[in-house]
Each structure stands twice: as C-alpha cells, then as structure tokens.
Specification:
Layout: H1 5-9, H2 17-31, H3 40-56, H4 59-74, H5 96-106, H6 108-118, H7 122-125, H8 128-162, H9 166-172, H10 177-189, H11 194-206, H12 213-225, H13 229-242, H14 247-260, H15 264-277, H16 281-293, H17 297-310, H18 315-327, H19 331-343, H20 350-357
C-alpha cells in the first residue's frame, strides 16, 4: 500500500460512490494514454487511478482497504513512537461515537483501579449450580402457590355446596365431583334429558377420588335408559366385582336380566345373591317373579305369600299367587286371591275368575 487511493483520486475518505465515480472519470480523461500520445508516465498514472477506482467502487474491498489504511495511520512505528494519522484522515470532523470511544479508552485505567478497590463483582461469582438452585426454589415456590390456591378454591367451593349452591361451588372448583353430583340430582328432579344427566354423572365420577357405588349405579341406569345395553351390563358387572357385598348392585343386575334381557334364570341368581346379603321386599318380589316366569310354581308360592305379608296393597301379588294356585291345581285356594285382585282393579284376573271361579257347583 505505497499509494493512497483517496489521494490518487483527489477525494476524501468520506466521499460517496457518486463522488468516487465522478473523480475517476475526470482523472481518466486527463491521464488516459490515448490522450497523452502514449506517454509511459501518464500510462502508469492511469493504471494507478484505475486500481484505486476498482478498489473504492467495490464496497467490500473499500471496507478492507479503509481498515488497513486506518491501522497503518495509528500503528506504532519500528522506532517505538506512534505516528500521526495518515493525511487522508486529517482535518476530518469526528463523530459523536468516535469521541465517546476515545473517552472510554482514556478512562480505562480508572475503571481498572476501581475494580481492584471494590473487588470481584458478585455477579461473576454466580455459577451454574447457584442458578440451578435458584430455579429450583422458584419452581417450588410457584408450585406451592398453585397448590395453596387450589386448596383455598376447593374449601370455598365446599362451603357453597354445603349451602346447596352447586353453581358457585363449580365456579370456584371446576373439578369438584360432589358438586357435579348435586347438579345431577337437581337436573334429575326436573326430568332433564338422560344425555345431559349422563354428562354430569360422568364428571362427578371422573373428579371424585373415591366414586360412590350409588353414583356408579345411577350411571348404569342412565346407560340403560339410553339403550346402551352392553355399556350398562359392563358397568353393573364391574360394580359387582369391585363391591361383591352390595345387595343393591345384585338387585339391579337381577332387574337388568329379568326385565331387559328376559333371562329369568340369571335374574333369579342375582336376586338370590341380593337376599343372601340382606333381606328386602324388592329382592323377595324379584325372586318370586323370576320363579313364576321359570314355572317353578312350588317355589314361587311361598315367595308370593311372603311378599303379600309384607305388602298386602299390591293387587298384582294376589293375581300372581292365584295364578300359581291354578297352575298347581288348587282352584279352591286360587279363587279368593283372584277375586281379591279383581276387586282391587286387576282386570287381567277377570278371565280367570270367570273361567274357574264363577262356575255353578255340581
């Protein structure tokens, strides 16, 4: 870099591309060999001008050249003293950024002395383990805050549910199973569509830590109401396996097989299981009706008699027992029961009464 391209083109270091191009054209016309009758001196000058233009008109090459020129201007000489800047950089107005950089460099020693006086910054002492511990503490604090918030919301929801306000309870805790069950019961009283009821009972079971057996039974009966026979059967059998000593589950299975599936034999086995756990009138009635459908009349007779002793207002019981007496050939015992059923409004007993009880004595 023996020649300064800016000086060759007679321009400053901050000249624009347009100014560089204009300067080149001007000097090219002046030093072109054709204009100067093949002068070797002018030809060499023209080559230098062309080289300078090719470098400064290419922005990437110009940046590299400017950097080299600047460092040459401010670099130390071999004799040990700092030379002044190249003449191309003299008398050029300094920008604000350049002044700030110079001030920053000038006060470098002061900053180093201050650091030595204050010691190493605490920020520099932070390592990855400290950061990990801080993040762990922060995460734990956030989790505890969320947990406490959920506890407070659940406590508030519980208080509102105790007052019967399941709407506000669900507003505070939308995962409160008991609140969904309370809403299910309220909708059930208003005879809402079973599909809507099933949604609430499913949510109640989903958000309860220990779903109650009666909730599961309600769900099974809703499935039956929606004609989801297989789903109802599976739900009842799952309950039977999980709670084998629940007589209500056995009774519901007996009803399912007796009324829905028309399988009195299976129904009888579940009614017997229910009665083995706890004696109840519905279980006795289910057992008596199953025996009647199976035509096991000798066993059905005492079962209906026991039911009549517990509920003498049911006209169907007298009709069934009278029918059983007829099947066993005991017309004398059948007629009082059939007449009693007819008098109570069981019109299905009239053909039997007319056929067997109103015949003239021989």
């Amino acid at each position: 870099m023996e020649h300064n391209y800016y000086q060759l083109l007679e321009i400053g270091v901050r000249s624009t591309q347009a100014e560089i191009k204009a300067a080149y054209k001007k000097l090219a016309l002046k030093y072109h060999p054709d204009v100067n009758q093949g002068s070797i001196e002018h030809e060499e000058k023209f080559k230098l001008i062309l080289e300078a233009y090719q470098t400064l008109s290419d922005l990437a090459r110009k940046d590299i050249y400017d950097m080299k020129l600047f460092y040459k201007a401010v670099g130390k000489s071999a004799s040990g003293f700092t030379s002044g800047p190249d003449s191309a950089y003299r008398n050029v107005p300094r920008t604000r950024r350049e002044k700030e950089d110079d001030e920053y460099k000038r006060r470098k020693s002061e900053r180093e002395e201050y650091r030595e006086f204050k010691g190493t910054s605490n920020l520099r002492k932070i390592d990855i383990h400290t950061v990990a511990i801080a993040l762990l503490v922060l995460g734990t604090f956030i989790m505890i805050s969320i947990w406490l918030g959920k506890i407070m919301n659940h406590w508030t929801a519980k208080k509102h549910l105790e007052k019967g306000d399941f709407v506000t309870a669900l507003h505070f805790d939308d995962e409160y199973g008991e609140a969904y069950y309370a809403r299910y019961l309220a909708l059930k009283e208003n005879q809402v569509n079973p599909k809507v009821l099933l949604q609430d009972i499913n949510l109640a079971i989903r958000f309860s830590n220990e779903p109650k057996t009666n909730w599961m039974l309600d769900r099974a009966m809703l499935l039956l109401a929606l004609d989801s026979v297989d789903a109802c059967r599976n739900a009842l059998l799952d309950l039977r396996n999980s709670d084998p000593n629940n007589d209500t589950v056995c009774f519901r299975l007996g009803e399912f097989y007796g009324l829905k599936m028309k399988e009195p034999k299976k129904a009888l086995s579940y009614f017997d299981s229910a009665l083995a756990i706890r004696s109840s009138y519905p279980g006795l009635l289910g057992r008596a009706e199953s025996l009647y459908k199976l035509k096991r009349f000798s066993q059905a007779l005492p079962a209906f008699s026991e039911c009549i002793s517990l509920n003498s207002s049911d006209r169907n019981l007298f009709f069934y027992r009278g029918s059983v007496y007829l099947a066993l050939g005991d017309t004398q015992s059948a007629c009082p029961d059939l007449n009693q059923a007819l008098n109570m409004g069981a019109m299905e007993a009239k053909p039997l009464v007319d056929g067997f009880c109103n015949q003239p004595a021989e």
